[in-house]
């Protein structure tokens, strides 16, 4: 201790202050975001600040609107830079860039166990791409009068369903690019589409605050779920096809929830997940391997990703991606990873950690 005291005595006050500030500045630069751990009764138990993560070369030069997992290594994303990007999120490398759209990318849908995928845009076009083919679209689908805001591929990969703000849904033959069916419902501004696994049904979210279930055999409405209080921004179906999720717009905690619905005979509302303070933009069912109970995840314009107990509606964990701006899209990468797109900081790679309970941490951004 004596040498240290002497050193401090000899050092000018200015130098001590500068060293202290430099040390604090270095520390603060690593405190990228905050996380909150919840008890089962939804009371915040502890606040954790996480530190370092990898910053890979960015996939996009502007806001990322959507991200989807192509397989356990690759994701496909699109945004305001009008470019579709295939990215290896495990190595941090761009695999390929695809250009052809004249406006923002709004939606992306992938073919199951395939290198092919689709993108929709504000230019009213849908394009089909091949990861190992040309950087030009393999097929184009043109038929909407306004921005395309919904995109879903059938389980057998032979049909594509698209939806738009022009109130219409269109069913396409993937092989020929030809329109098979077209349906229109007044004021039905489509926000998202999702195909039910192993079924001929397509789930649709709408700005008219409803969730519709369409039968692709003739493209007729098979069921309309009870209307919510706010615009439904997104929908997702569980792997077994028994349940579905929808998300609500909102502000200041009004709305801002996710809702679990039964897709079987009763088609009732099962549970609601409330805790976000702005529009919930995306929701996903998480793999059962992640936790002892079934869990879901939501992302919101409030910069937060939340993990919920699917059965009880209890929030298990909250990750705040400070400085990211609104979170726009969420996708399951593999059994322990999530991909989250944002307005300001590209795509975030999040990992579920079981070392001290169920936690979610940011490990990379690109």
Automatic annotation (TrEMBL):
Q: Which UniProt keywords apply?
A: Repeat, WD repeat
Read off the Pfam families from this record.
WD40
Q: Where are the transmembrane segments?
A: none
Q: Where are the WD repeats?
A: 98-139, 141-182, 183-215, 273-318
Alphabetical list of SUPFAM superfamilies matching this protein: WD40 repeat-like
What protein does this entry describe?
WD repeat domain 31
Q: Please give the PANTHER family that the UniProt record associates with this protein.
A: SPERMATID WD-REPEAT PROTEIN (PTHR19869), WD REPEAT-CONTAINING PROTEIN 31 (PTHR19869:SF1)
Origin: domain of life: Eukaryota
Organism the protein comes from: Myotis myotis (Greater mouse-eared bat)
């Amino acid at each position: 201790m004596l040498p240290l005291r002497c050193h401090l005595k000899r050092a000018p006050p200015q130098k001590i202050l500068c060293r202290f500030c430099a040390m604090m500045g270095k520390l603060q630069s690593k405190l990228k975001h905050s996380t909150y751990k919840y008890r089962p009764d939804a009371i915040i138990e502890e606040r954790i600040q996480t530190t370092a993560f990898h910053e890979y070369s960015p996939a996009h030069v502007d806001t990322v609107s959507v991200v989807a997992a192509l397989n356990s290594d690759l994701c496909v994303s699109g945004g305001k830079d009008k470019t579709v990007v295939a990215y290896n999120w495990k190595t941090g490398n761009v695999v390929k860039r695809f250009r052809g759209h004249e406006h923002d990318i709004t939606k992306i849908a992938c073919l199951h166990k395939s290198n092919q995928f689709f993108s929709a845009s504000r230019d009213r076009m849908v394009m089909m791409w091949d990861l190992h083919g040309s950087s030009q679209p393999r097929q184009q689908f043109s038929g909407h009068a306004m921005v395309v805001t919904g995109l879903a591929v059938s389980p057998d990969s032979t049909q594509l369903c698209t939806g738009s703000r022009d109130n219409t849904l269109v069913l396409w033959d993937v092989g020929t690019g030809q329109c098979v069916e077209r349906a229109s419902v007044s004021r039905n501004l489509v926000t998202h589409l999702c195909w039910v696994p192993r079924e001929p049904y397509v789930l649709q979210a709408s700005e008219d605050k409803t969730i519709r279930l369409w039968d692709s055999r003739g493209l007729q409405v098979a069921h309309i779920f009870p209307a919510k209080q706010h615009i439904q921004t997104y929908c997702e179906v569980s792997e077994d096809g028994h349940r579905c999720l929808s998300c609500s717009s909102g502000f200041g905690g009004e709305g801002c929830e996710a809702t679990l619905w039964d897709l079987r005979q009763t088609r009732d509302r099962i549970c609601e997940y409330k805790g976000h303070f702005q529009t919930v933009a995306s929701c996903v069912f998480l793999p059962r391997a992640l936790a002892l109970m079934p869990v879901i995840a939501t992302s919101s314009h409030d910069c937060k990703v939340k993990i919920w107990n699917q059965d009880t509606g209890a929030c298990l964990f909250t990750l705040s991606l400070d400085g990211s701006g609104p979170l726009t899209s969420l996708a399951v990468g593999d059994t322990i990873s999530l991909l989250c797109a944002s307005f300001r900081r590209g795509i975030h790679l999040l990992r579920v950690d079981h070392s001290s309970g169920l936690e979610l941490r940011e490990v990379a951004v690109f």
